[in-house]
Every structure is written in structure tokens, then in C-alpha cells.
Amino acid sequence: MTERSANGLTRFAVELGVAVLTGAFGAAVCYGSLEIGAGWTDMGPDAGYFPFYIGLLIIFGSVVNLVQAFRKHRGTGEIFLDGARAKVVASFLLPLVAFAAVSAWLGLYVGTALYIAATMLFQGRYKWWIALPAGLGVSLFFFIVFEIGFQVPLLKGPVEAWFGIY
């Protein structure tokens, strides 16, 4: 899509932003690796040796992406994300952010039940008497599989104390 009249986030801005973010991540990896030692000793490589070079590889890839963004997309005005597409992305992303926040606060099982039920209600347009049992059923299924079957405790938040689970 190369419409110059459309308003939105340009592809050049997105490519530039992603290149800068991945470059910063690579720099953070390199910095952390240097703190724990990224050299070679008599015993072999230090703990940060391999991560340091992975960080350099990430920085190199970011620089390549940055150069390509300037060569291919600067000044084209190509729209990456317009208002209509931003609504679709937000309708997917915001519930996931809410799920993460609720899960951190009340635990994964409550977060999962609320996320499934709310997604079915608001995006799937299901009736509440279908969405609510589905959300509870998925959480119960996850509890049985992880807690009982695999014996892997997941984050339960205050629910654990409320029900006296452990």
C-alpha cells in the first residue's frame, strides 16, 4: 500500500524503530556479558563469551535493517499502520495486556477464565451463559493438566490462599 494521502504510521518509522529497539537489546546483551566476563581464560571461555558475540550479531543485524530502511523506505510515505488497522491490532493487543495484568495480580487461572470469557463475549459475540462456562472450563482444564497431571504449579495469586489449595 503506497497511498500518500492516508494518515498513519509509515513503514520507514516502524522499520527505524524496530532497528533501534533490537540494536538496544543487542547492546544490553553485550553490556551484561561484559559484566560477567566475555573473555577467554586458561579454563576456556568466560560465562559471557557466547552471549557477547550473540549481542554483537544482534547489533549487526539491526544496523543492516537500519541501512535497508533508509535505502528502501525513506521518503516513500508507505503506510504501515492506519487507523482502521490500529483498531484491529488494539482489539487483539489490549485484551492480552489486560490478561497479563490480571494474571500477575490474581493468578493465571483467574486471568485465563476472564480472558477466554471476555474474548468470547466481546469479540466472538457469544452469550454470557456460553462464554462464562467456557472460560471456567478452560481454567479448570489447565488446573487439572498442570497442577494434577504434570505437577507443575502455576501462578495462583491470592486464589491459592482463598481456596487453601496448598
The whole-number mean of residue pLDDT values reads 90
Proportion of helical residues: 55-70%
Low-confidence stretches: 1-5
**Class of secondary structure makeup:** mainly alpha
Succession of helices and strands: EHEEHEHHHH
* Shape annotation: flat
> How many domains?
2
Major sheet: arrangement of strands: 1-4
Taking the sheet with the most strands, its summary is: 2 strands, antiparallel
How far apart the termini lie comes to: 55 Å
What's the β-strand tally?
4
Radius of gyration equals 23 Å
InterPro entries: DUF1468 (IPR009936)
Protein name: Tripartite tricarboxylate transporter TctB family protein
Keywords: Membrane, Transmembrane, Transmembrane helix
Overview of the structural elements:
This protein is 70% helix and 7% strand. With 166 residues, the chain is mainly α. Strands 1-4 form a two-stranded antiparallel sheet. A two-stranded antiparallel sheet has the order 2-3. Keywords: Membrane, Transmembrane, Transmembrane helix. Pfam families: TctB. Residues 17-154 form the DUF1468 domain. The chain crosses the membrane at residues 12-34, 49-67, 88-116, 128-146.
